[in-house]
Amino acid sequence: MRTSVRRRAAGSQGRRTGVVVGQGIAALLATAGLMATAMPAAHADTAAAAPAASDTTPGSETDTPSLVTGLHEEVAASGTAADAARGHLKAKKGRYHIADTSAKDLTSVGTTTEKGGKETVRLQQKYKGVEVLGGQYLVRMTKKGGKRAVTGTSGNYFTKLKLDTVTPKVSEKTAIERAVGAVSTQFAGGLLRAPAKGEKQAEAEFKGSAGDVTILPQGTGVLTRHITVTGTNPADGSPVQQEVYIDAHSGFPVMQYSGIKTFGATGTASGATEGAAAPADASAAAADQLVVKGSGVRYNGQKVDINLYKDTKGLLQMIDYSKRAADDSPYEGPMIATYDARGREAGSASGVWPTGVKYFQPATPDLGEEYTNSGAVDAHWAAGKVYDYYKNHFGRKSLDGKDGYIYSLVGVVQNGQPYNNAFWDGSKMVYGQGGGDYRTFSADTDVVGHEMTHGVVEHTANLVYAGQSGAMNEALADYFGNAIDLEANGQSMNDPDAGLLGEDLCTTLSPRECALRDLNDGATTSKNFIGATYGGDNGGVHLNSTIFSGALWDMRQDLGAELADQIVYRALSAYMTPLDGFTEGRAAVIAAAQELGVTKAQLKIVKRSFDAHGIAPGWEKALGVDTDTILSKVNIAGTGVGAGGGKYAVSRSNEDGSEPYSVWMGNTTGKGQPQLMSANNGDYNVYANTDGKTVVWADYSSTGIYIMARPVKGGIAKVVDGIGSDVNGLVVDGDWVAYTAFNPQFGVTNVRYVNMKTGETGLVDGGRPYNISGLASIKDGKIAYAKVAPDANGNMQLGVEVFDAVTGTKTQMPVAGDVMGVGQTAITDDGVFWIEDKDLTDSGKAAVRRANLDGSNPVTVTPEAGADSLYAYTLTASDDAVTITNTPPATWWANDTMAKLYQVAPDGKGGPQRMSCNRGEQALGVADEGQRVLWLDGTTGYTNLVKRDRPAGKC
Question: What predicted TM-score, i.e. pTM, was given to this entire model?
Answer without folding.
Answer: 0.76
